[in-house]
Design goal:
- It contains 1 helix and 7 strands; from the N terminus they run βββββββα.
- The protein is an alpha+beta fold.
- The chain has a single domain, classed as predicted glycosyltransferase like domains (Thrombin, subunit H, Beta Barrel).
- The protein starts with 13 loop residues before the first strand and ends with a helix.
- 19% of the residues are buried.
């Protein structure tokens, strides 16, 4: 899905698939999924459930190719439901809330590398 607000982003995002675990703060239900895209400001994931706008979440990114896990808090900032047959999924934008500076550098390097690769 191409989101119309992509040109208004403060941070560029790139298609980068990594394993991510999402959990609403204070909830035991964990969603295991993959990122659709990533940037220093946040991620897009597809979830099987609508977890509501502006919901505080816990995020754990597993950057397998870098052998690194990044954990931080986040907040849902947009949700778009999609029906495919009898199944509904939810494209969900999550903004990072307290990303550590060192982790921001790692994500920035991933984004820069992906941007370089896409220009060839």
């Amino acid at each position: 899905m191409v989101w119309e607000g992509v040109n208004r982003r403060r941070f560029p995002r790139v298609h980068y698939s990594c394993i991510v675990k999402i959990r609403r703060k204070g909830d035991s239900q964990m969603f295991n999924t993959r990122t659709e895209n990533i940037g220093c400001g946040g991620i897009c994931v597809i979830l099987p459930k609508d977890i509501s706008m502006f919901t505080p979440v816990e995020v754990e990114l597993d950057l397998i190719d870098l052998k690194r896990k990044i954990t931080c808090d986040g907040r849902t900032v947009w949700i778009v439901g999609t029906n495919i047959g009898s199944t509904t999924t939810f494209d969900t934008g999550i903004e990072f809330v307290n990303l550590k500076a060192a982790d921001r550098v790692i994500i920035d390097e991933v984004v820069e590398e992906c941007l370089k690769e896409s220009t060839y």
